[in-house]
Amino acid sequence: MTEEKKSVFATLSEIDVKRYLDKKGRLDYLSWANAWTLVKRAYPDANYKITEFPEYVLTKDGWVATGRNVDYRQTAAGYEVEAVVTIEGQDYSSKLFVMDYRNKALSKATYFDINKTQQRALVKALAIAGLGLSVYAGEDLPEEKSNGQVSKPRPVRQSSAKLQFTDQQLLDYEITDKKGTVKLVQVVAEAINGNPDSAATIKSLGGESHEAYKQIYARKLYKSWLDTQQVGE
């Protein structure tokens, strides 16, 4: 009796990607290079492309075609990219907008921003095909211990570690970066929900801000912020 051939999804979903994961802040992620290497080992004929779109530029007279193609699409909402993976004749695609660490579409983006989003779109397309889907879904985020404690935080300066905040102070605590001012509890919530840019922001914190982050995490105040957002939806 001939053994039935496994589907692409079944094959890729069985690959253990954990030893190929990288760290960004407190989160695990699968880089595009590792993801593509694993797929090519399983399917040497696999290929991918970044979709090209007709280029339009916004002028005082509206959107005008330039007559050339570019590997992103500029719209009134922002910049969109698409990665398409082909495995055994089947296409798996993913479209993403170029966003900042708050998950807001960028109205102005550099090609570095665009290229980074293209790589993320490729990894997402591979996840749709079956590779590392649980990681992409956030199932490998650091888990809280059963006794209510959290994973051991990175060391901070002793002077900042002595700071104590009330819950309301933590909910109102703001940080500022090159993109503007935002509440720290929001950044923590987004990082826990899998936003790699928010996770990178958390990793960059030091001194008082890092101590505030630790207390927000330990007291689970990010849940209050998430509940507030759900009520407002």
Describe the structure.
This protein folds into 2 domains: 8-136, Enolase-like, domain 1; 158-227, no CATH class. 39% of the residues lie in helices and 24% in strands. The protein is built from 10 helices and 10 strands. It has helices at 8-13, 32-42, 111-129, 133-136, 158-161, 167-172, 184-192, 196-204, 207-218, 221-232; strands at residues 22-24, 27-29, 47-50, 53-59, 62-70, 73-75, 78-87, 90-97, 174-177, 180-183. Strands 3, 6, 7 and 8 form a 4-stranded antiparallel β-sheet that branches. Strands 1-2 form a two-stranded antiparallel sheet. Helix 2 packs parallel to helix 3 (111-129), helix 7 (184-192) packs across helix 8 (196-204) and helix 7 (184-192) crosses helix 10. The model is unreliable at 138-161 (pLDDT under 50).
